[in-house]
């Protein structure tokens, strides 16, 4: 069982091993507590065939990754691109809001331009 501060939730980034021994990094799509498994969208793996697919992992073979807050606008743009690639609308909205706040601090005239590349989402 995971310590209280390491409780895994949907959307968390994790690293673990599949039941076939494949190393994966991805985000949690679903949790099946009764079977002690989680469904992970694989972003990186030592098996290229499972990348961009979902994999089931045993909960005790998963470690929650620490989250780091982006500090620069460039990092935010990179994460926004990742949110688009992974089709994570909620994360996209959070990141664009944070980017908008950063650009508003810098210059209120530039804030509408900062998000113009992502207005179609």
Automatic annotation (TrEMBL):
IDEAL domain segment(s): 50-99
SMART domains: IDEAL
Alphabetized Pfam families for the sequence: IDEAL
Gene3D superfamilies: Virus Scaffolding Protein, Chain A (4.10.810.10)
Annotated transmembrane regions: none
Protein name: IDEAL domain-containing protein
Organism name: Marinococcus halophilus
Species lineage: Bacteria, Bacillati, Bacillota, Bacilli, Bacillales
